[in-house]
Design goal:
Number of strands: 23
Structural class: alpha+beta
Strand content: 15-25%
Length: 626
């Protein structure tokens, strides 16, 4: 006898919302129905541990496509449902039989891998089907029942003579339209891809029929023949839930390359396993080289998200900070608060906790790599060091303590990269600051006239070769209470009290000369001073204030407006200074030309542009002819 019943709840409107609004991608239906099948098997397996009347079977899930009849069937040999349970679980929208089952188990539920919690996954079938039939036989029951619905207001339930152990769901696919090609879901390769994408780590075999090509008989090589064969599609055991010692490097490398579409082995792999109030596993990889477009598209960052082995999200940005965008991998947790469609995370402190722990684990692994495998770390830093620097720079240096010891830079006294800690440990007695210079090469840095005084004192200088380096150091301010200081900015404080006093006296004696030069250059420099940083060089350019000369180059390339407060420094011990005094005393008209010539020379030394290259060249030729 067939019984027709109305769905409980606000039927048509609510059911329509379930079908058309909750899920973003229609392909999700297969994930949801396989997850339900897995839950049914879990329930049977769990109950069989205490109820020995429940027969033991080889648990499996079968997915079959029938192109002729346009149907997809998902069959499991799980617990099955009685007539009353069909009405309760399928006839009541948002009624979760799995959630109710777990509530009955109490504390024992913690040992179960049951996934369902909202009671809406079944209705995702109506996104692709205009009719769904559920044939179910409860274990140890004498009755089999058939539930049937077109996803509108009513459903029917009737008894059935068909023999089945568990549940079989049959989807009658909608007719194809211009917008949707439902026939694609009947394709053998599409079904296999969706199983591997969403349900690869369901712990029971998921089988489907696949086409196998037969070897032609001798002499009949031109006659192709095929047959269908039942094949297990899913991997079942997640690699990330195994002990690291039980996983070979080859397995890890193959897993990474297949999952993240890279042709090279990863630089390193990181296993994370946490149990307690928040339980999760993670498997993370650092690619050997940046993957395609990784620097241009930070939106590509994010870890894959699984819950109990079921794939949920491809790029979950909430699970990893932006500066670690290059890290690939996944997180699997049963404790994350998913929304009703299991497609999105709800904002929750658990998410932030996992993200924080994942970040710490990555940084711990990098610290070990730097200490134990420096060559490998150098390979990493050349590929991704810029990302760590941005991590230091972001949020006003909030990550200083966790990242500062992972940054390595060249220095002028070392052939290899060094850390801030190594620089500090080698500082001579009496050195007050960590000195740096922003130049693209060591040769350019060593050629600067400002270097001579630091060489005399035996002080090393960090070489900032990257645009972000100086911004990073300004945000950091110091390392272990030793301040960073640019050799081209501000007072280096390297002279003795007596040397400072002598220069101040010369400055006072030549106050008018310096004012005259400053007046000549008033549109280009903020000050003209006697240098306390030059030894052999005649002049140099320095900066005061927050923007350095190198920062001006970087910022000007972006908006064209940023300007450093330039200071022209003249060496009072250089013969040129005496020449300037003579010109000022005897031919004040020439002082303007000489002042501009000196400024251009200083700018060129620093790698900065000059306003009038032609005039500068003419001045050089003029001097050569004298």
């Amino acid at each position: 006898m067939i019984e027709t019943k109305e769905f409980k709840t606000e039927t048509k409107k609510l059911l329509d919302m379930m079908i058309h609004s909750i899920y973003t991608h229609k392909e999700i239906f297969l994930r949801e129905l396989i997850s339900n099948a897995s839950d049914a098997i879990d329930k049977r397996k769990f109950l069989s541990l205490t109820d020995h009347s429940i027969p033991s079977v080889d648990y499996e899930i079968l997915v079959e496509a029938d192109k002729t009849n346009r149907t997809i069937t998902i069959t499991d040999n799980g617990i099955g449902m009685t007539k009353a349970e069909l009405e309760e679980n399928l006839g009541t929208i948002a009624k979760s039989g799995s959630k109710e089952f777990l509530e009955k188990l109490g504390d024992a539920a913690n040992t179960s891998d049951i996934i369902g919690q909202f009671g809406v996954g079944f209705y995702s079938a109506f996104m692709v089907a205009n009719k769904v039939e559920v044939l179910s036989h409860k274990v140890n029951s004498d009755e089999t029942y058939l539930f049937s619905s077109d996803g509108l207001e009513n459903y029917t339930i009737s008894s059935s003579e068909e023999l089945i152990d568990g549940t079989k769901i049959t989807l009658y696919l909608r007719e194809d339209s211009e917008e949707e090609k439902y026939s694609d879901f009947l394709d053998e390769y599409t079904i296999k891809d969706l199983i591997r994408k969403y349900s690869d780590y369901i712990r029971y075999p998921i089988k489907t029929w696949v086409t196998k090509y037969d070897k032609p008989e001798e002499g009949k090589e031109d006659q192709d023949s095929t047959h269908l064969e039942l094949e297990t599609i899913n991997s079942m055991i997640p690699l990330w839930k195994k002990n690291r010692k039980d996983v070979t490097d080859e397995e890890l490398n193959n897993f990474y390359k297949q999952k993240f579409m890279d042709y090279q082995d990863p630089l390193t792999a990181i296993f994370v396993s946490v149990e307690g109030m928040l339980t999760y596993n993670a498997l993370l990889f650092i690619p050997r080289k940046p993957l395609f477009n990784v620097y241009n598209d930070k939106d590509e960052r994010g870890l894959q998200l699984y819950t109990k082995g079921v794939f949920i999200l491809d790029k979950c940005k909430d699970l990893i900070p932006e500066y670690l965008y290059f890290v690939k991998g996944l997180v699997d947790s049963a404790d994350l608060p998913l929304n009703i469609s299991r497609e999105l995370l709800q904002e929750d402190r658990q998410i932030k906790k996992i993200a924080s722990n994942v970040e710490k684990k990555i940084l711990q692994e990098l610290t070990k790599l730097l200490k134990n495998e420096p060559e490998k770390y150098l390979e990493f830093f050349k590929a991704y060091g810029r990302a760590l620097k941005y991590g230091l720079y972001e949020n006003y240096g909030a990550r200083k303590e966790s990242l500062q010891d992972l940054v390595i830079l060249h220095s002028l006294n070392n052939d290899k990269y060094i850390t801030f800690k190594e620089y500090k440990e080698k500082m001579p007695e009496g050195q007050k600051n960590i000195y740096y210079v922003a130049q693209k090469t060591k040769e350019q840095a060593l050629a600067l006239p400002q270097m001579a005084l630091l060489k005399q004192k035996g002080y090393d200088v960090l070489l900032l070769e990257d645009d972000v380096d100086e911004f990073m150091l300004q945000v950091m301010h110091d390392y272990d209470k030793v301040e960073f200081k640019s050799i081209t900015q501000g007072d280096l404080d390297l002279l003795t009290e007596e040397e400072n006093k002598k220069i101040d006296e010369v400055k006072e004696e030549n106050k008018e000369l310096l004012e005259a030069i400053k007046e000549s250059l008033k549109d280009e420099v903020s000050d003209v001073i006697l240098s306390k940083r030059l030894v052999d060089g005649a002049v140099c350019i320095s900066a005061k204030g927050g923007i350095s000369l190198e920062m001006e180059k970087v910022l000007s390339a972006q908006d064209g407006n940023a300007k450093a407060e330039k200071v022209l420094e003249i060496n009072p011990n250089h013969p040129l200074f005496n020449k300037l005094k003579d010109i000022y005393q005897n031919d004040k008209d020439k002082l303007n030309d000489y002042s501009k010539f000196l400024l251009d020379s200083a700018l060129i030394q620093e790698g900065l542009e000059i306003k009038d290259p032609v005039n500068y060249t003419n001045k050089v030729i003029e001097l050569m002819l004298k």
